[in-house]
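User: Second chain of the day. Same drill as before.
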Amino acid sequence: MATRKPPLRMVDWDWFLIFLLCSFLPIAVPTTIGATWEGRFFAAWKFLPPLCLAIGFVCILWRIFRGPKAVALLALGWIFWTCVVILNHHHPETDAIVEYGRVTDLAFQHHGLWQGYLSGMTAYLFGYPPGSSLYVGWGRALGQKNHNLAHTVVMLFWILTWTANMTERTGRAMSAFLFSALILFGEGLLWHYEYFYNNLMYSMVWSIFVIVPLWGSRLRPAQLLGYSLALIWLRPQTSLAYIPILSYCLICAFQGQRLVWVALTLVSCMAVTNIGEKVWTSRRASLETLGKQRRHEVYDEVAQGQTSQLLSIDLPPSSLAPPPLPTKKFWKIGTEAVLWAARLIIKSYPLSCVLLLGGFIGFWCARARGSSWAGLAFLVPLLTPLGVNAGTFAFAFVFPDYQSIPSSLTRLLLSLPLIAAGLVVALDEQLYQASRPASATPTPAPTENSR
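Assistant: Same format as last time:
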């Protein structure tokens, strides 16, 4: 008779995901709720993310300190380093703080996410989705106006969470030290550890879909759907969100997961991302309508007591000619964009690209052991740079001057150092298991990740 799985303990909950979803709750509120009711909701909600974060830290540290002492010392090292970063912090005005941070600032000033957007008095603000800003809102709820400090604490939470999960999976302290070392030396991660930037949280969620199955674990159904929703609310672009979801499903399929389960996972996660994108799209359309009404009201108030001559400006007919149509052929434009993106990725992430190519080592080791299909799982992380690179093909036609914003592409791929670190840990575990005597205890089969 099959034994039932033990109930999931509170300490083993995925508190990082719980914190993210609690931070994103204001997005689910209808824009038509009104300022009064939204203010009441916001007043009750704003203390929920810091509470989840505090409970999550307690649970993660409890799990870490019950494990190997070396990993506990490593966790203390990360906490010490974070304190040093916070105490020596400077406050540069990066574009993320000016624009994405402004969304959070307006929300707390006007007691509601949608009221903050409407009070911004510009449709330009709608180009900054709230998910990338709300995860640092817990600091504002506690009176901290520096988004960089709130971001640093959340990144520490992510590192400790997956260090604990990895250690419990492999049972080796070396895995945790290797993961931490590669994060410290990953391209751009030290700077982004200290300074808030919207793409880093997106990259952290993206990397979870890739590194968790590589470690031989599985996300629970609730985790898969939750991270899919977080992914799309951090950046409402389904074409990008499909890449990590597809990567997760491919790795599971190559590792022997039933194809029916893989297909259901793929369809359900894609459905969640589509629903999440439509929610934000509908909220944005409603805000634009309400924003026009708000601006007209303000303009009418300004116009009272003024003459029409002061409010009217006669402009001469425009002499600007429409932009010329591209003379290059369709495939030539796309090919140039892909080659440009490939050179930029290799130049910006040389170490990560080399480490990702190390997946061929895992493929050859698995093939030598008679598991060619399982070895293909180590090549799936290459889908991240290849998928984004291929997307540049289409982006070149939407934005012909794409080469003027190279930083947008490089920061979109901040997940590469994180994925490379997770891949190296998986390769290290693969080589360790291959070097063990045949009589040793075999590696356990992939199980659900209950964290």
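The radius of gyration is 24 Å.

User: Great, on to the next one.
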